[in-house]
Amino acid sequence: MAAANSDQTQWHTFTCGEEEYTVPIRYKDPKKIGYGAFGAVAQMTDTVTGKIVAIKKLIQPFRGTEYAKRAYRELKLLMHLDHPGMHIVRLLNVFTPNNNLREFETFYLVMKYAGVDLNRIIKRHAFTEEHIKQIIYSILRALKVGVFYENYSLPYNTNGFVALQFQFAHSAEILHRDLKPSNIGIDEDSNLTILDFGLGRVAADGDKTGYVQTRWWRAPDIYTNWQRYDDKLDMWSVGCIMGELILRKPIFPGKDHTDHLKKIFEIIGTPDRSTLDEICTPDVVEFISKMPRQVGQNFNELFGYKYAAGNPQPTSGISPVGVDLLRHLLTFNHFDRPTAEEALAHPFLTGFHNPEDEPTLDSLVDEHQNACYNVEKWKSIIWELIQRFEEPVVDADDDNDDMDTDSQNIP
Known about the structure:
- This protein is an alpha+beta fold.
- The chain has helices spanning 65-80, 118-124, 129-143, 221-224, 232-247, 257-268, 273-279, 282-289, 299-303, 320-329, 340-344, 375-388, and strands at residues 11-16, 19-24, 27-35, 39-46, 51-58, 93-95, 108-112, 116-117, 162-164, 174-175, 184-186, 192-195, 201-202, 306-307, 314-316.
- Residues 27-349 form the Protein kinase domain.
């Protein structure tokens, strides 16, 4: 559905949580999911398809140029990542209740609903090594496809609003930059999806914004040379998530930037001077050189198999080959971290990796990527995108993943 239909009987207005929604009457039974400075999300039932969906209302997206550009990026990215058969949770609908461009004030995004996020599951359940493999494979499979957009801290870090199922990020050259357990949704079939896509930007040379990601999952690249980083940023976050799945707690819970680096070095060790000189700005080299030098921890002892007395089977942890993958993901020098494609080929994921079932997307060419338009121009561009949007044909099979999750559902 594109812009508002002139027949207002096809719409209804109600309050859900703190926000008023005006949506087509096909969407009913609203339940609050999340609310923040930039948007509100509600769970609703699509009476046309019978599916439960998550609907995000953008709150005052045209209050300023940066807000308008953020709204454009989110919509542009989700429309680009519409690709059937690639395990991407698609943009199901986008609409505005406003009748024309002059009245255009907000719009709504309709996505598949994911019942729970990974953060909640980590708090409630331990993971077997097979579950950890499945989760990390799914994340990497999604990252292989695209490299995500600039992070602006979306309004909700909660279950429900699904952007896509991971792999297609990096081949489409989109940097996500906000990978963390609360931004990973899991449905009843154990399919994983990346949540919160208003934060991406197309990967390109040039300066980047300095503040991204919740700190604990943030790559040190943000500190070492914050204006120059690449898709390896996401790979560090995958390593943080993998470590958290093993220990069931964040592995780098820094209180501030300095403490975060300290926590990182306590586990991986302080990089040598040649590494610092290669990837850090001079002031960062000087800063790190003044920190107490850390030798790091033994990864096999920290993340490897743990045994209970009298039990030959491991009760937690992962095998040495899994520890090897984790060590590579948590490499301080981003040049030495694997790409998503390289990580997928690691022996730890042999039972899941299938290159023929891991396709890629064409790069997203965004002519407005670095544009500095005024609000009215951004509003006009977004209006046209909404006008051109066509609802995808969603088959019943689209909700299923090709992985055999029936026999090993994530707890």
